[in-house]
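input
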Amino acid sequence: MMELTSENYFSAEMQMAYMGASQFKAFQKCEAAALAEIRGEYVQPSTTALLVGSYVDAYFEGTLSVFKAKHPELFKRDGFLKADYIHAQEIIDRMESDRLYSLLMSGRKQVIKTGTIVGIPFKIKIDSLLDGDTCKTIAREFPRAAAALGFCDGAIVDQKAMKDMADVWSDEERCKLPFVEAWGYDIQGAIYQAVEGNMLPFILAAGTKEDEPDLAALYISDADLAAKLAEVEDQAPRFQAIKDGKIQPRRCEHCAYCRMTKKLDGIIDYKELAGDGRE
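output
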């Protein structure tokens, strides 16, 4: 198999060869859309919000110049950045001005690792992989971080740039969930910890896109990660079987892909729409 690198990490070949956190979560949302995306039959539409997050990620990866070159839509006709991306730089400045945030992001960047979970190949790319000395420095300078990092030989840090840190409504749960659970960051942490292999703590370095960006350093406990890993172990074999063509994917009938590919097969009473999840 071809070597997994930053350049081919998201290629069609590697997406088929490995499962990752984003792919796993995509299958959870809609199996049909996830498979179509892997096969190149469907491309998720890009949005300004996604591009702002990618802009921040690219800066900390050290690939911002490449990112700008690939996305001319970031710029106005006069060659200057549009307002949303000027604000993205302000978010970055806010993150870098904070000592703890900077320490969390000071580890080895974009560390690619592969492994297996219940015999299925997984890939991860760690935003910042801290060593034990940096963890001890953080614990010494910030006593409230000692419980998370004081007794470990390293840590996995994942950076998130998001709208805000408010709870998020879940149609499935019919209630609001902490954003960490709503966006599946706990599932991501479980996969990262399992593939990395050393049971390192999983930390989220989060910043918001608000006018005055908020920051947070969040720890997901090993117990919570273990519970989510059990969920991954339970569902991953089905998702892999779908990738292998052994079973047909289910359609959610609500996402953009399902709306785009929907075929009418009858005429129904309009009142039946009330039971299909539409708002």
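quick obs: Strands lie at 108-117, 120-131, 154-162, 168-170, 175-177, 202-208, 215-220.
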